[in-house]
Design goal:
elongated; Serine Threonine Protein Phosphatase 5, Tetratricopeptide repeat; single chain; mainly alpha; 25 helices
């Protein structure tokens, strides 16, 4: 069986000048630092609060093995996920810096520099130096990476990038020239794979990355069957550890996914979720190729959500068709381009919401690893451009060089200014509201911040806007109802509780809150009936028994003639 043609040559990093690649690496490191270094002075922001600042598991190294039986998100936050090594890494940094955010941001910036250099090194395995450098330089200054670097918890993305790139780089370097992968290097790749999965579940795609690397980057003239047999043994070991990881993850989180699905994906099947994501393809494309407008969240009504066929899906479908055509055309003619596009598909699949729905539609931090493939595909075009420019006037060469320099400078400026918006949670929420005024989550999180600042009226307005933007989502409604009840405004809380339970009946706290409000409004019969129905459905028998007893006691007192009318609230008069 004849395999597809791989790259025409393997580019030896040190063939021409042993120190040459080091200067290239230093230049890439400098670009990455210029784009991200300003974030060293940022504080904790957004999800940092719950995963790092208020998470006791991330503050101590006394019993680190217990982290492997603990969810990533604290159980009070609803979502769970499973990333024990990430929490352990946070704990190390917390202990070293005594809780200072500087240590976390220092690690993030250092990891980003390393990832950018690894992109260069992988590029040098399959591209001329100019192509590898262009790919790594564009990656280093890409503004879409800011969220992963400037936000503390984005560190999981960075560690995942380091591990995946390192594993693929080891594989490609060892396999060039048709040399079988040494057992020691295979063991190292498996070890990286195991660590990667325990840092972030997205690393589970590494076997697929190795397959496409073998297909498009490795130069090996041996029969394809022989190559496949050697790779198969490595893939079997990786598959066994992946199954073991998923088993442990399921035992801890209760499910393979473990994330609270995005409100726009609730109750949607795989086909419907595929339509939703097709509608978002133009936004993904823009973020990879021209990220001038950025946002900390992409939700309705900021982005379209189509769960059934609509004309609005045509741009996304057309881009997917064009993508497929480019892959077919480049399969043999430009294998590195095909590798880059295949990397994009593989790396983005865990957050594509097709197989398993996640808590996001689009999150910029999750585009860090997929963008490696996009930049390598663009870098593969650079040598072709250079060859064409050799016969062009000197002015053309200067213009193209100036254009590349301008793009890099603009990328650095955009990345640096965007990094400053992640200095604290208030800055993130205020920027999110400006970036996405029609995004329901922008108003949801802004309302939550205002509640904490005791600005109740402004917070209530923000949450009411969020409800109007996504009326079929229960989360904002139940939170608002709880706030109303805490303020003893049960007349406003009851309609929100009722609507919440119409949307999502299986919410015990909403049922308990509704009963408590009925009691406060002295509507005892409604409270008793609601409690009995909830008990019959099997919810919170302890709390419901107590509330039922309160309602029964009030009804007895009321029926004896000295109570309060449950509908009007007026005292009854005893008959003489």
């Amino acid at each position: 069986m004849r395999g597809p043609r791989t790259a025409s040559r393997a580019y030896d990093i040190g063939a021409d000048d042993p120190r040459g690649w080091m200067w290239l690496a230093l230049s890439i490191a400098a670009l990455a630092f210029l784009a991200s270094g300003i974030g060293l002075h940022n504080g904790f922001a957004f999800d940092d609060r719950w995963i790092i600042v208020e998470n006791g598991n991330a503050h101590s190294l006394r019993r680190p093995w217990e982290l492997f039986d603990t969810t990533y998100w604290p159980t009070t936050r609803g979502a769970s996920l499973y990333r024990p090594l990430t929490i352990l890494l946070y704990a190390v940094q917390w202990v070293i810096g005594h809780g200072s955010p500087f240590v976390f941001h220092l690690v993030n910036v250092a990891l980003y520099v390393i990832v950018s250099v690894l992109v260069l090194l992988l590029g040098l395995q399959c591209l001329p130096r100019v192509g590898a450098w262009v790919a790594a330089a564009l990656f280093a200054v890409h503004p879409v990476h800011v969220e992963a670097v400037a936000n503390g918890v984005g560190q999981a993305e960075l560690w995942t990038g380091v591990i995946l790139l390192s594993a693929v780089l080891i594989y490609v370097r060892e396999r060039q020239g048709g040399i079988p992968l040494p057992r020691s290097q295979g063991g190292l790749i498996v070890a990286l794979y195991i660590a990667g999965m325990f840092i972030k579940e997205n690393a589970i795609v590494l076997p697929a990355l190795l397959v496409i690397a073998e297909l498009f980057l490795v130069k090996d003239s041996r029969p394809w069957r022989k190559r496949a047999d050697e790779l198969f043994s490595l893939l079997v070991w990786m598959a066994l550890f992946a199954v073991a990881f998923l088993w442990v993850r399921t035992k801890v989180t209760g499910e393979i996914g473990g994330d609270t699905e995005h409100p726009a994906l609730r109750h949607l099947g795989m086909a419907q979720r595929s339509l939703v994501m097709t509608g978002l393809v133009p936004i993904f494309t823009r973020l990879f190729l021209w990220p001038s407008a950025l946002s900390a969240d992409y939700s309705p009504q900021m982005v379209p959500v189509y769960s059934s066929w609509d004309a609005g899906l045509l741009p996304g479908a057309a881009l997917l068709l064009a993508f497929a055509i480019v892959v077919v055309v480049c399969w043999r003619r430009a294998p590195v381009v095909t590798f880059g596009l295949a990397w994009l598909v593989v790396a983005i699949s865990p957050v594509a919401n097709i197989l398993i729905p996640s808590g996001i539609l689009i999150a910029e931090r999750t585009l860090l690893v997929p963008s490696v493939g996009v930049m390598l595909a663009i870098g593969a075009i650079a040598p072709w451009v250079v060859e064409r420019l050799k016969v062009e006037p000197r002015s053309s060469r200067i213009a193209v060089t100036g254009l590349l320099a301008a793009v890099l400078v603009l990328g650095i400026i955009r990345s640096a200014t965007r990094t400053l918006t992640w200095k604290n949670s208030q800055s993130v929420f205020m920027t999110l509201a400006d970036d996405a005024p029609l995004d329901f989550k922008a108003h949801y999180v802004m309302g939550g911040m205002l509640w904490e600042q005791h600005q109740g009226l402004k917070a209530e307005i923000e949450w009411q806007i969020a409800i109007k933007l996504l009326p079929d989502y229960y989360g904002v409604r139940v939170d608002l109802a709880h706030r109303y009840r805490e303020m003893h405004r049960c007349d406003a809380a009851v309609p929100q509780y009722v609507k919440t339970l119409e949307i999502e009946p299986s919410l015990p706290l909403a049922r308990v809150g509704l009963i408590a409000c009925y009691l406060e409004l002295q509507q005892y019969r409604r409270a008793r009936t609601t409690a009995l129905i909830a008990k019959a459905d099997g919810y919170s028998p302890g709390a419901l028994n107590y509330l039922t007893e309160l309602a029964d006691s009030a009804l007895v007192k009321n029926d004896s003639g000295g109570g309060i009318n449950q509908w009007t609230g007026h005292h009854k008069r005893r008959k003489p």
